[in-house]
Amino acid sequence: MGKNPLEKSIHISIIVPVYNSADFLHQCVDSILRQTYREFELLLINDGSSDDSLKIMNSFAEQDSRIQVIDKVKNSGVSDTRNIGISLAKGKTICFIDSDDWVEKNYLQVFIDNYVSSDILLLQNVIRDKPRNLHYKTYNLQNDFTELFLRNNLLYFGGPCGKFFEREIITKNNITFNSEVSYGEDLIFFLEYIKQIQAINIINAALYHYEFTENSLSRTKHSFDSLFILHSAIADFIFFHHQQTGKKIKKYIYQVDWDIIEACIDQGIIGKKLNKEDSYICMNKIKATIDKNHFLYSGYYRKVLFLLLKTKQYQLLLQLKKRLNK
């Protein structure tokens, strides 16, 4: 076998944003420190926690020199916290672990064993209640674009966890988590990142355990602006890959985009109880971004929504949505 491009001296930066995670932090950090691959730095970033999280982080740092604790006194959200981690990271590669999750002891080693090139994103399965249904192989983004997204439902697997990123690609292309977005910021980051690489290797491993907690399950009705930014990012992604997008993949991507558009209406307008004037301003923004493909690649119900948007029948559309949401 050839020499692995990741020498031991070129280590991994593990970024863990922490907010009020005292009940889960021991399990998370212990699982990282038990890794069989040991050449890493661990950045624990406190996002203004009001519980004992910072105390626990400092106690771990006293025991292991690979740990660096960064204390943000004021809470500013997970995106800003991850961005601080990226700016401080020294490793050639970066992986993100949420503070209420944990990983099995060979999690990093599997990434190392499968590392071939900096322009191939490594992706492992993530266990929620069970592993997702992924198809394990290396997908070239030019030739296997449709298969990659359709077989693996990849637009719903855009979170940063379970992935092995190149720090230089992130910093060179100024890829960040959008701190203005409260929903979908991780998918936007993922879409921007894969514009800069050649392939994605989905590894046959499921070593990351995602824990459902109050922190990880948001019941918040997200703002229209956050949802609209996500909708715009998907539109940009479609345009960037328009040459590879055949009929099947277009249908899939436009269905995902319709999910976001409906969330804009259900959560961002109806859920936030916007007044008539603000509701119509938001509707006009949506109307300006949809095209004939949103009509072509949709079922009967969404075709009706499309026509109501295009003809500015906003009051009728909102009444229809409210009835269906009951």
From TrEMBL:
The record's top EC class is: transferase
Any one Pfam family here would be Glycos_transf_2
What's the domain of life for this entry? Bacteria
Q: Which residues form the Glycosyltransferase 2-like domain?
A: 13-170
Q: Which SUPFAM superfamilies match?
A: Nucleotide-diphospho-sugar transferases
Arranged from A to Z, the UniProt key words for this protein are: Glycosyltransferase, Transferase
Q: Where are the transmembrane segments?
A: none
Gene Ontology molecular function, alphabetical: hyaluronan synthase activity
Q: What is its EC number?
A: 2.4.1.212
Keyword Lipid metabolism assigned to the entry: answer is no
Q: Does the keyword Transferase apply?
A: yes
Q: Which PANTHER family match?
A: GLYCOSYLTRANSFERASE, GLYCOSYLTRANSFERASE EPSH-RELATED
Q: What is this protein called?
A: Hyaluronan synthase
